[in-house]
């Protein structure tokens, strides 16, 4: 089973994933391949770090179900890892995804008859000053923070128009309240 987390950069997707990994014993990150450098906040098993050349080779070989660019970084998730997660009855796999990847994941799960094994949460934020504060807190450079904000301005509208049945969470809440909301949705849907 898969529970994806999506939202603009800086809304707390990784923080929520860390908290859900602690709160639910059967949750695992769904591995993604990335060209970005590791961050201290990355969860073990969340990413495999590869060079741009290796990423390009994997992409050319058709290993990824999707790839995405976020700012200057490249991300991809292998089809074999998605198939394993959709088939799993013992674990809940949790990827952090961009909107286009969520759409592709839902289309793929529907094609292979596993849509019931897929749920998606969207973390919503409107306050750009709050985002700037979060970027500063995590050590992002001001120019990078502004580029990320510019890139994500349309995310909330795009998410509503995507055709994906998102479970919506509000990023302006305290972290523990966002976790409580997420856990309530997970328990109510029986996806733990």
Structure description:
- The chain has 192 residues and is of the alpha/beta class.
- The protein has a single domain, classed as P-loop containing nucleotide triphosphate hydrolases (Rossmann fold).
- Helices cover 44% and strands 22% of the residues.
- The chain is built from 8 helices and 10 strands.
- Helix 1 (13-23) packs across helix 8 (175-189) and helix 5 (128-137) crosses helix 6 (142-152).
- The longest helix is centred in the last third of the chain and has 15 residues, at 175-189.
- The N and C termini lie close together (9 Å).
Task: Give the CATH class.
Answer: Alpha Beta
Arithmetic mean of pLDDT: 90
Tell me what portion of residues adopts beta-strand conformation.
15-25%
Which of globular, elongated, flat, extended, rod-shaped describes the shape? Answer: globular
Strand order of the largest sheet: 8-1-9-10
Mind summarizing the main beta sheet? 4 strands, parallel
Total count of domains: 1
- How many whole angstroms does the radius of gyration measure? 16 Å
Order of helices and strands: EHEEEHEEHEEHEHHHEH
Name of the CATH superfamily: P-loop containing nucleotide triphosphate hydrolases
- What is the architecture at the second tier of CATH? 3-Layer(aba) Sandwich
Q: Count of DSSP helices? A: 8
N- and C-termini, Cα separation? 9 Å
How much helical structure, as a percent, in the residues?
40-55%
Low-confidence stretches: none
CATH topology assignment: Rossmann fold
Report the strand count.
10
Helix vs. strand class: alpha/beta
